[in-house]
Amino acid sequence: MMILTARLPGVSFWLDVEQDPTEKGMRHGVRNSKDVLIYLTEGLIESKYCQMEMRWALEFEKNIILVIETDERHGKPSIEKLIALCPPDLKHIFADNVIIPWYRDPAFREISVEKIIRARSVKKAGPTVMAESTTKLKFMTRSKSSDSGGGDVFDWTFVYFTVLCGVALPGAGTKTKVWSVAVRIILLTCGFMCLSRIFTTEGPAFWDTGTIVQIVVAHPIIFLFLHVTLTILKSPLIADLLENRIDAPVEAKILRLKTRIGTCMAALLTVSLSFWGWAAYLPAFFDMYYLESTSQQRPATLLLFGLATASRGF
User: Fold this and answer.
1) 3-state class of 201 per DSSP?
2) pLDDT digit string, tens, across residues 163-173
């Protein structure tokens, strides 16, 4: 336990023999755990309490990690005997999970520790196969805000705001992902249209070259921001923060409030700057210089360019 604690700072550990030894206490411990590590030793499978904990782990769909003792002096078991003595409803645990050997020799112990860490909260792609971590962020939807139990960290306002901005959060649906791709395409298209203004210097909608260059450069910055934001939200660091370092509902509630305040401020700033930009940017494209370009014997393409660029602003 001390070795794992040193390797996983900030992670809370619950040891059944050191906590409430009652059936209610053990059930509570398993229910509120993210992973359930079962240390296989001689006679363990015959224990009524160990069998109950294994059943609770299955009932609550916990990630089960099997670790087996390798030193006969400390109760090394026979895996065949363990499986034979195991109740029928628990036998599949041994087939569905990799059994990690625990080496007491310091030279090999690090291998065991590393395997245990890698086995934490992974999705099983099949028997004895471990896939990439699928830890989901604790998002809150508006319909569930009243019964979330205090475990959600991201308020529903954050979820909807990021979706509107084209950020497909982990676990997002197909429509949201399609919209996210569409936002990127729109953003790139806008960038190319702004770039074209450098070569079209006619009319009141034209600004100086330096300003246009700044506008063009802003598009890849926004595109990069969307990509980086999604990468950060999917990172193991955020997953570890949410799953292992926020244990109390009170902490989650405080963070949820801060998330809502920050999201509301970001939304207000976004809307304000958008209207400000449109007020200064769009009117020039509706100037008669463009609308009457044909009658004034100017290229008709100016009218199309003006209308296309104005629609881009919307």
Assistant:
1) coil
2) 888 888 776 77
Q: Which of 97, 2, 79 shows the shortest CA–CA distance to 42? A: 79
pLDDT in tens, 49-80: 889 999 999 999 888 999 999 888 888 898 88
* Distance (Å) of CA 161 to CA 43, 138, 260, 264: 54, 16, 10, 9
Model confidence over 302-314: pLDDT tens digits?
A: 555 555 555 555 4
Tokens 């009170």, residue? 250
Asked if 96 and 124 touch (Cβ cutoff 8 Å), the reply is yes
Report the relative pairing of strands 99-102 and 129-133 from DSSP bridges: unpaired
Query: Which residue type does 127 have?
Result: P
Residue ranges of the domains in the chain? 2-133, 142-313
* Cα dist from 302 to 195, 286, 287, 296, 313, whole Å: 16, 11, 11, 11, 17
What pLDDT score was predicted for residue 128? 36
CATH of domain 2-133: 3.40.50
How far is the CA of 43 from the CAs of 51, 86, 156, 252, in angstroms? 11, 10, 49, 41
